[in-house]
Amino acid sequence: MQDNHFRGMKTEEIEQSLQTSKRLGLEKKEVQRRLKEYGYNELHEGEKQSALLLFFAQFKDFMVLVLLAATLISGLLGEYIDAIAIIAIVIVNGFLGFFQERKAEKSLDALKEMAAPQVFALRDGEWQKIPSKELVLGDVIRFSSGDRIGADLRIIEANSLEIEESALTGESVPVTKYASPNHQQVDSIGDEENMAFMGTMVTRGHGVGIVISTGMGTAMGKIADMLQTAQTTTTPLQHRLEQLGKILITTALLLTALVVIIGVFQGNDLYTMVLAGVSLAVAAIPEGLPAIVTVALSLGVQRMIKQNAIVRKLPAVETLGCASVICSDKTGTMTQNKMTVTHIWNGGQTWSVTGSGNETDGTFLRGEEEISPSNNKTLQQILTFGLLCNHAEVIEREGKVVIDGDPTEGALAIAALKAGITRRSLQDRFEIIKEFPFDSTRKMMSIIVKDQNGRQFVVTKGAPDVLVSKTESILWGDKLQYLTGEMKKTVQSAIDGLAEQALRTIAIAYKPLSGNTVILDEQDAENNLIFIGLQGMIDPPRPEVKQAVKECRDAGIKTVMITGDHAITAKAIASQLGILRGKEKVIEGKMLADMDVSDLEDIVEDVSVFARVSPEHKLKIVKALQNKGHIVAMTGDGVNDAPAIKSADIGIAMGITGTDVAKEASSLILLDDNFATIKSAIKEGRNIYENIRKFIRYLLASNVGEILVMFFAMIMALPLPLVPIQILWVNLVTDGLPAMALGLDQPEDNVMKRGPRHPKEGVFARGLGWKIISRGFLIGLSTILAFITVYKSNPDQLAYAQTVAFATLVLAQLIHVFDCRSEKSIFSRNPFGNKYLVWAVISSLLLMLVVIYYPPLQGVFHTVPIAMRDWLLIGGMASIPTFLLAGSFLIRKTK
Length: 895
Ligand code: ATP
Hints:
Elements (H helix, E strand, L loop, with lengths): L10 H8 L9 H11 L12 H7 L4 H15 L3 H35 L3 E6 L2 E6 L8 E5 L7 E13 L1 H4 L5 E2 L18 E2 L4 E13 L5 H4 L13 H30 L4 H15 L4 H18 L2 E3 L3 H6 L4 E5 L10 E7 L2 E5 L10 E3 L2 E3 L5 H12 L4 E5 L2 E5 L2 H12 L4 H7 E10 L4 E8 L4 E7 L1 H5 L2 E6 L2 E4 L2 H16 L3 E10 L8 H4 L3 E10 L6 H10 L3 E5 L4 H10 L8 E4 H5 L3 H8 L2 E5 L3 H13 L4 E5 L5 H6 L2 E5 L5 H6 L2 E3 L4 H41 L8 H11 L1 H8 L24 H26 L4 H22 L15 H19 L1 H7 L6 H27 L1
Parallel strand pairs: 9-23, 9-26, 19-22, 23-25, 24-25, 26-27, 27-28
Antiparallel strand pairs: 1-2, 1-3, 3-7, 4-5, 4-6, 4-7, 8-28, 10-11, 10-22, 11-12, 12-13, 14-15, 16-17, 17-18, 18-21, 19-20, 21-22
Bound molecules: adenosine-5'-triphosphate.
């Protein structure tokens, strides 16, 4: 254990030693200087794959190896030009693959950067959220439950602080931390009571610390090599395509062997037969497919970022398209999290408060009559305690009033300000001795305070229904009364009355402590309380959510609201948003507590709102829905939400309010915390999958066409209609661009009008296999017909007939590509609606013309210039597949 001299220091000594100030933090200039001197607060990553290695990795692919073998054979047979041309195409393709993979890698790195943890640091006297890699020695940072500690710190303030240090010690039970100097001998990191270490998690409470080491100097840095964890970067679809590729290659090789053997037996010469076999092998393999899938996924992920959704785990892109239920938090995700207190209740009377949003001016009304809060002692007390038991700061930034902290607490602070009660005025009157922070399971927060006269008492604020069960008496007006059953009912109906107006409610209570009472924990503090009153605040729904919920419903996706809020408040908002309809139910957390997963399964599909739930219940809900066969997307922000986020098929964390723990457990982060973003991500997920299906259909139909051309020719004992280099050119060059453009296609109108895809659905489901074979057959047929027509009229000019076949094949494929835009028919959408596709097809046509008419390339590609009149034949033949299919669609439609 390295000696740590900060352990025994007082705060002032640390400030002096590190030239910093706990009140003002570091100055920006000083930060720059320290960054220059000590570098960024980063752990050195393990060696990345070098560019050269990545380039060579492109040639490790089995498909490429087959191609290289074919080249070798051509070379051995004396076809040097062919061999060189194939190698050139393979190298160009290798470069393309290399650049695409580099780009995909870079965009994943950029994603990592966006999802990287941020910390609150005190700079120039102001708390600022900065990327944790910018921390330097002497930075003062604050942290709270759910945060990952960004550097090694000496703790100088701790409030019920507990940190889980398993990343360093392997011990998963959180350790309680203190701020006082520690003069004891310390044997291991686990005993460092006043230190917090980089990479560990705050599980409870909050605190402030001064950075004492960064980057590789931290305890984590010393074991950094052990932390290189592999992340899954391939999706299930990519995996399945890899398998498919292997099957295709094996089939191609068997086919090649068969063709060669049968041909030689029939008396053909070996050279011709090997050439035919190699052509078949090249025709059967969709060489460009894996690269295009990677590009389509990485471009899709980038489009999602533009819509504020960050994909942390690539497989989520596919799972998104299968989601059948979205379980979403209410506060901040469906609502704006812009709370404003509008009603205050005490002892049978309600005051309303004016002033919208964060306006700090407002009046208090009883009925129509304006009153002065300073004349009402109990109202004063409700507002004072609401601000005292509170961390939110109301600050002015760029001329606007903003809340630094929890919006619920911000609303209470602004309500107090409207009555002229400021934090500064309270600081002179009260000293906070201890705090029991808010957590979503207790649904309360308490403090112990001492007033100017030395009297101590507990102040608690929290969910009213929970608080009522902890109270013995009530301040009715300014009279203290015993809370009878009758009185409880009155309080309950006041709570319900506010909740029915969709208000979020907070109750305020307190109790005096006699001089010798010892409060050890929150159980001691939060009982026998005196109920004072309620504050009700509006939190308007986000305007776009109603439409998003409807779109999800149309897409066969159910939206479920899961909230810690009161059942009646939740019900009111869920009804406004169209989440709760007809016979759908609202269930409360306390009911869930008594159920096991199998009980919940019986009813879970009928429930649209789970209210007053604790984060632990979320896991049960996920499991029950999954057992019913659903693919579940689940949102969360706190530490306790992490297990449910992890178990869900798509775990979603909030970008703004989410803790590091929740983000790290998630596969998707919403940058704007907005429910509508989930809908957009699902739509994008469905679209990416559909686009991948589109180009798989296109590329494989083209391969089928090529195989069949060769096969037809062999059956009819005709010479080869295409030479291998021509097929390779088609597969890698003329097909590549349009396939990529299909990957960028806009979603079909109905992508959110049909149910979610079944997660086990194969790539060729929903008729895709049939489409590939039938279109491939027609492409093959039209090409061979064009070849036969020209070859029969002039059998001496094989190269000419081959060029015509080559042109017909390319053209038939380039016409067919427009067909692939829709799963229904070419008529169901404007075939030229994708401008990338139009440009890709034009460039592929030009490339084809270059190969046919540019003399230096004619030798390489075995082509000869085609006469004008034959273009009519080529055009006619190439249009046959699309005409036939369009015709059959029209006939079926009119029937
Ligand atoms: P959601 O799960 O939809 O985000 P929520 O934010 O209302 O809902 P919690 O944060 O768990 O869920 O809050 C539950 C209840 O606890 C609230 O209805 C409120 O009454 C009370 N509450 C919320 N924030 C605080 C706080 N800072 N201090 C005391 N009580 C709070």
